[in-house]
Amino acid sequence: MKQPRVLLTGESSIVRATFEKLLESECELVGTAADSPTLFSLASRQKPDVIVLDVSVAAFEVHKVADSLLRLIPGVKLLVLAETKSIGQAREAFRQGVTGYLLKTSKVTELSRAIKEIHKGRAYVTTRITENLANSWLREAKKQQPLPDLTPRQQEVLRLLMEGNSMKQIAKILKISARTVAFHKYRMMSRLGGSSSVELIRYAVKHGMD
């Protein structure tokens, strides 16, 4: 797979320059933006694969920016750099179409990993809040009715996907083969009309599995 084309945002020129230097060997950096007008201008011209959204940037309201960017560039992957470990904020970001969620205090190596993962069509949540997020989802899921059209095993696979597990990890947890996990995943996509893990997770969130 070719290197992802990445657009960075951030108020600090020092931070943006640091990210550029650290990521330049793994990504094709198509620009940096310190404000909304610059972001949308660059996004429109460069059509990046991934946009890293620093939520501290003035006027970057995730729900508004995400919707506008997804309309401007259908299929673009959005990676949020957040300031707090708020589970509610992470959930809301995914509801708005974000596919990756990191903290500004995350290591740069994790930023690189997150970009690679979402470029492949997978969701990514920083390991610093994954445990709390997963526990919250599981507690809430117990209060909900089963998702329509999904078997109990498919729901187990979907919950583990929501926790950020790969198909190999899910196979190990459920003690089944990776091929069986893939079968359940593609059956769910066929039934629910999705085409990726990210779309399955969005479907689950919309139907109360959060």
What is the helix fraction of residues, given as a range? 40-55%
User: Secondary-structure element order, as H and E?
Assistant: EHEHEHEHEHEHHHHH
- Percent in strands: 5-15%
Q: How large is the radius of gyration? A: 17 Å
How many distinct domains?
2
Largest β sheet strand count, sense and barrel closure: 6 strands, parallel
Low-confidence region ranges:
none
Distance between the termini: 32 Å
Mean pLDDT comes to: 80
Helix-strand layout with pairing:
Elements: E1 5-9, H1 13-23, E2 28-33, H2 36-46, E3 50-54, H3 62-72, E4 77-82, H4 87-95, E5 100-103, H5 108-119, E6 124-125, H6 127-141, H7 152-162, H8 167-174, H9 178-192, H10 197-206
Parallel strand pairs: 1-2, 1-3, 3-4, 4-5, 5-6
Q: Could you walk me through the main structural features you see in this protein, from its secondary elements to its overall organization?
A:
The chain has about 210 residues and is α/β, with parallel strands linked by helices. The protein folds into two domains: about 5-130, Rossmann fold, CATH 3.40.50; about 145-205, Winged helix-like DNA-binding domain superfamily/Winged helix DNA-binding domain (Arc Repressor Mutant, subunit A, Orthogonal Bundle). It has ten helices and six strands; from the N terminus they run E-H-E-H-E-H-E-H-E-H-E-H-H-H-H-H. The protein has helices at about 15-25, 35-45, 60-70, 85-95, 110-120, 125-140, 150-160, 165-175, 180-190, 195-205; strands at about 5-10, 30-35, 50-55, 75-80, 100-105, 125. The protein has a six-stranded parallel sheet with strand order 2-1-3-4-5-6, sandwiched between helices. Helix 5 (about 110-120) links the parallel strand 5 and strand 6 (about 125). Helix 9 crosses helix 10 (about 195-205). The longest helix is centred in the middle third of the chain and has 15 residues, at about 125-140. The chain is globular, with a radius of gyration of 17 Å. The two termini are about 30 Å apart. The model has no long low-confidence stretch (mean pLDDT about 80).
